[in-house]
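Model the whole thing, not chain by chain.
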Amino acid sequence: MLYNIFIDPFVQMAGAPDLLVQALWDGLVSGVLYALIALGFVLIFKASGVFNFAQGIMVVFAALTLVGLYEKGVPAWVALALTLVVMFLLAVAVERVVLRPLVNQPDIILFMATFGLTYFLIGFGELVFGGNPKAMITEQLGLPRGVIDVEMLGGRVSLQKIDIAAAIIASIMVAALAVFFQKTRIGRALRAVADSHKAALSVGISLNQIWVIVWFTAGVVALAAGIMWGARSEVSFALEIVALKALPVLVLGGFTSVPGAIVGGLIIGVGEKLGEFYWGPLVGGGIETWLAYFIALAFLLFRPQGLFGEKIIERI
Amino acid sequence: MLYRETGQFKTSYKADMAVFPIRQDRIGLAIILLLAFVAMPLFGGGFLLSAVMIPLLVFALAALGLNLLTGYTGQLSLGTAGFMGVGAYACYKLTTFFPEVNLIVWILASGFFSAAVGVVFGLPSLRIKGFYLAVATLAAQFFLQWCFIRIPWLYNNNVSGAIEAPVRTLFGMPITGPHATPELRYLVVLSIVALLTWIASNLVHGRIGRSWMAVRDMDIAAELMGIRLLPTKLLAFAVSSFYCGVAGALMVFLWYGSAEPEVFSISQSFLILFMVIIGGLGSLIGSFLGAALIYGLPIVLKSLFPMLGLSVGAATVEHITFMVVGAMIIGFLIVEPHGLASIWRTIKQKLRVWPFPY
Amino acid sequence: MNGQTMSGQGMNGLALFSRRDDSVAKGEPLLTVENVSLRFGGVKAISDVSFDIRKGEVRAIIGPNGAGKTSMLNVINGFYHPQEGRISFRGQTRRRMRPSHAAAQGISRTFQNVALFKGMSTLDNIMAGRTLHMKRGFFWQLWRHGPALDEEIRHRRVVEEIIDFLEIEAVRKTPVGKLPYGLQKRVELGRALAMEPDLLLLDEPMAGMNLEEKEDMCRFILDVNNAFGVTIALIEHDMGVVMDLSDRVVVLEYGRKIADGAPDEVKASQAVIDAYLGVAH
């Protein structure tokens, strides 16, 4: 028994390094997607202090809108542009209807309001575009398809082209966001708002404008995540469960850290794949559904503030 | 006019500390109990009892349980359905192992199993708070649901992977299975829910309830006053999970008749959380009101469209229900963060001073 | 004095502070702080501070902002754990202690920014202060009639005395979140009193109050000290209040003790004058 848990998996890893590399790669790719979802959370949390539970749904909603519009006969690129418009309108609506009336409420109230938003978006998305799973329009958007096989370590590792594209797009996006945050005037305003709403208001920063910008940015990130994800499986609200995995990622990386979200995403992605592949069979498989939460939980007990969070000193 | 407390002086602390200090409230409660226990089974009819009242009571009990944890103690939980599942499966195992023992004993006993599981998953609450704790309860939710699917022993190796309520009797009459009358099932559910509600009311009105609320409102101050945080939180997890477990057992045995693991999925947890939010965090009566609203809404919507002469598909109704529930949550949080219970209090206050505005 | 008679009434044949611990005689050190240092990462909040608090006195801790006063209180009631030094309370020395343990030993406190239980009524807040004295366990609480209710009623009687003493009868059932600031501070004092402490720590009990409210609060503090015999340590910025109320004063600056003694001595100390007025180095 102990042998099966502590030694056998490592023997397997060493015995077939090509499988290990394959598992690592698969883990990294899903990690990138988790990181992209978590990134949306972090953006919103940093700028408005709202823990946006609806981020996962925004991913599905964005992808669904894109595919839904295409199915209704809109050309792919126009559909993409229109989806961006929809995400912008969503940001405006959220600011108007949810954030503005709830300003200065305790965090937990805003958190629960995003539950409401989640349900509303599920109902709305399905009402407009139907509840059936849809295929993502990858080729129409010019994204590559197919497999690259790499011969290595005495075996063959296959890499999906779309996964490589996802990794590249995600890195570009993170870099762009970093520049946006650090170098632009709006970025500075965002950081100011993140520190203190009242102080930001008092130096003439418009909270409402900032919130719209942040939610729109999170919407764009959600769309990117949605496209990548849809290309790997299909677009439906069943993805909601997968989107919840962004929570352990956040816990691992800290709620306010962009690098944390990325590293956390990769750790969760890889940890979960390796766990399922090497340890899953011992208990009957399917442990992917909860392993991520346990990894995060175990981690929390040792570092409650996350990987990149600052140590909390409680004051009274 | 009728709702006036003038002249009702309390001459002892005992009278002042009663759960219902106002006479009209006590009369109101007596009438409601009379209606629920006598009129409803006599005149309610099978459909109303088994499709409306029993589900409502089961959900109210689960919401009550979650409310003790989230509303009173301030520990957000997204694992309610998982704990309900523990109750249901524990009850199933117990009653198939020991069929001769009365089912009601096992329903209540199954609560202890889910209480124990709740305590285990409540342990991290010492170090982690708020959103972080939500992740711990999500771990419980997904892990428990995985157990219900992957451990065949839990469902006695049924091919279907579901658990089915075997026929059990009370005073020689069947209370589960196809021959159980809705009236009897309803009365059993109602009695258990009424008993547990009364106990919950005792708990929250005494020392334990105050400790829970103190931890919720200002945990540091509570600790500096000698309230030990971990035991207090764990007790909340245990009691809350006990209630959820009993609700889960009732759900499978006296309502559904059988259940698959999907019954205890994350969306069920969310549904119960919404009942608590809309009903009112930290209010017992709110749990009932919230359950009635969230469970009743789809039923009302389903019958509303035909009444308006519109023919709308079942799927569409479901989508609209999602939208309405979502919008309602946001609306409630904006207008009345304390939920239906707070509206109820406002109405009582208005009645008290009627016809004057205040 | 009106306050004296008020509390005098409150004492008549009543349960409050009846089971007082007399293991330390009046005038003897109740609490001693020896060479305590506290660091947060690289920041030294308190360095090598020693002083004592004698049974029955009003001890003031003063100093400019950021001098480490609140940190000192946090150390005393076990919320922060100092890296060095010892603290003994009633002759028992301890290095690490949980806040709930400190509470059980008879140390209670109020907070700089009111830390009441906002969702609960005045009555429930003060009743929560009685938690340590309530013994009926979980299974009695399930029932709440009989022994558990009797116990509630007994403690309710004590709480009502405190409510009378602090003159907050009218807001008994009001949720404390709705009370004005001055009353909230008073309820907080009531909650701390309900624990029947031997040592009461008050963190800026008069911050943000107007003159009248300050006078009321001073009167309550003196009454608590005189009539109930509670030892008090308080942090306060209003020098007039400090000099009037306290028997002895300890002055902190940048986490170090710069003066200790009777109010007049401290007032005359050059180090204190420099700390408050600034000095050209």
